[in-house]
């Protein structure tokens, strides 16, 4: 069993869509980034890459490369899933904590879980999404940013 952690944070700005876990939220602000800035998927990518000792999201998808500009983060996750399979591993589970003052996440968690499970070809019961606020403290609490933390576990196929 292999474990990895991931974290991502992006600033909220005008004139951007807010996408979390592949789900578009109706919200007046969106996350600023080179791709669609989906902090949930970015944190998962880093957790998976970490578990497989394959570096981090910035190494694989640098913001200096135009081919990643504006890309849906699900395509980054597809590539990470390919790398995991090439390393003879499979995803056991994913646990994500979203840190956001607004919007409320609860009603959309099941959609995020469905996306993640489908994109990683795993059982939806092994994907967990949680959310919390920062109680008005720091940039997240002031509604200036959204962050996500993730932990992932992988099985090495040779160990199965």
Structural features, described:
The protein is an alpha+beta fold and 160 residues long. It has a single domain, classed as 2-C-methyl-D-erythritol 2,4-cyclodiphosphate synthase (60s Ribosomal Protein L30, Chain: A, 2-Layer Sandwich). The chain contains five helices and seven strands; from the N terminus they run E-E-E-E-H-H-H-E-H-E-H-E. The strands form two sheets. A five-stranded mixed β-sheet has the order 4-1-7-5-6. The chain has a two-stranded antiparallel sheet with strand order 2-3. Helix 1 (39-51) runs parallel beside helix 3 (73-86). The longest helix is centred in the middle third of the chain and has 14 residues, at 73-86.
- For the record, the count of structural domains works out to 1
Query: Major β-sheet, in short?
Result: 5 strands, mixed
Across the major sheet, the strand order is 4-1-7-5-6
Q: CATH superfamily assignment?
A: 2-C-methyl-D-erythritol 2,4-cyclodiphosphate synthase
Shape: globular
**Second-tier CATH architecture:** 2-Layer Sandwich
Specify the structural class: alpha+beta
Number of strands: 7
Using the coordinates shown, work out and report the CATH topology.
Answer: 60s Ribosomal Protein L30, Chain: A
Instruction: Kindly report how far apart the N and C termini lie.
Output: 10 Å
CATH class: Alpha Beta
SS summary, helix count? 5
Query: Order of helices and strands, N to C?
Result: EEEEHHHEHEHE
Weakly predicted, low-confidence segments: none
Oligomer: single chain
């Amino acid at each position: 069993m292999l474990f990895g952690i991931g974290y991502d944070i992006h600033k909220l700005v005008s004139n951007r869509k807010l996408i979390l876990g592949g789900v578009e939220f109706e919200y007046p602000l969106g996350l600023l980034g080179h791709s669609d800035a989906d902090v949930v998927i970015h944190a998962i990518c880093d957790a998976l890459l970490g578990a497989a000792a394959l570096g981090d999201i910035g190494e694989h998808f640098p913001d200096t490369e135009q081919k990643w500009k504006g890309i849906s983060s699900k395509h980054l996750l597809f590539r990470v899933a390919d790398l995991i399979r090439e390393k003879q591993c499979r995803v056991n589970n994913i646990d994500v904590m979203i840190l956001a003052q607004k919007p409320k996440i609860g009603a959309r968690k099941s959609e995020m879980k469905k996306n993640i499970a489908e994109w990683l070809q795993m059982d939806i019961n092994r994907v967990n999404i949680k959310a919390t606020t920062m109680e008005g403290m720091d940039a997240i609490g002031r509604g200036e940013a959204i962050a996500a933390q993730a932990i992932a576990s992988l099985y090495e196929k040779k160990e199965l």
